[in-house]
Design a protein that fits this description.
The N and C termini lie far apart (56 Å). Helices cover 43% and strands 2% of the residues. The protein has 6 helices and 2 strands. By secondary structure, it is an all-alpha fold. Residues 126-184 are annotated as: Disordered.
Length: 184
């Protein structure tokens, strides 16, 4: 099958939604948003990340390198005072590139699986409120590690005092060392 060089209008819309869904399931990003590790405008910064990722993905396919996307994601998380050492950046980048390739082929199955794995949730970037959501259902697509951690209660401790959090898949998410200490 010959893969088209450009996304169709439908594929563009699907890709945008897929980016939002995938970033919305990235527990490290969601914890940074919920705890405002990047400041009070962390949510707006995360929305801009989705735009930046989309703009990066619509470059000519021969100019897309996973290392560059990983650097974009890593730099963004560092801008939120969040250092990631668990491999989730690589996984998110890989999943975004796979999704892009599928969209080029007109295949939206992975995006549909993401939609179905998050019942009763607005598909725009959203943070779960302390365990009141049932979005922890497992996905059959193998991307359970992308699920948000919905057991975090930001009012239980200030963000700079929180210990590393281990999600259901054993991934550890920690705030950057720059965010620890006596700052308030």
């Amino acid at each position: 099958m010959v893969v088209p060089a450009q996304l169709t209008a439908e594929a563009v819309n699907q890709l945008r939604e897929g980016i939002d869904l995938l970033l919305g399931r990235w527990s490290a990003l969601q914890m940074a948003i919920q705890n405002e590790w990047g400041g009070r405008d962390t949510r707006q910064k995360a929305q801009q990340l989705a735009v930046d990722v989309y703009r990066w993905l619509i470059k000519p396919a021969e100019a897309l390198y996973v290392d560059e996307l990983e650097n974009l994601l890593d730099d963004f998380m560092l801008s939120l005072n969040t250092e990631i050492d668990d491999g989730s950046i690589e996984e998110v980048a890989d999943n975004l590139l796979i999704m892009h390739e599928e969209c080029l082929e007109g295949n939206f199955a992975s995006i549909e699986r993401l939609r179905q794995s998050i019942p009763n949730v607005n598909h725009r970037m959203q943070v779960v409120n302390g365990g009141e959501d049932d979005s922890d259902s497992a996905s059959s697509s193998g991307d359970e590690s992308m699920e948000m951690e919905d057991e975090v209660d930001p009012s239980s401790q200030p963000p700079q005092a929180q210990a590393p959090t281990v999600d259901a898949d054993g991934w550890t998410v920690v705030s950057s060392r720059r965010n620890r200490g006596g700052r308030h």
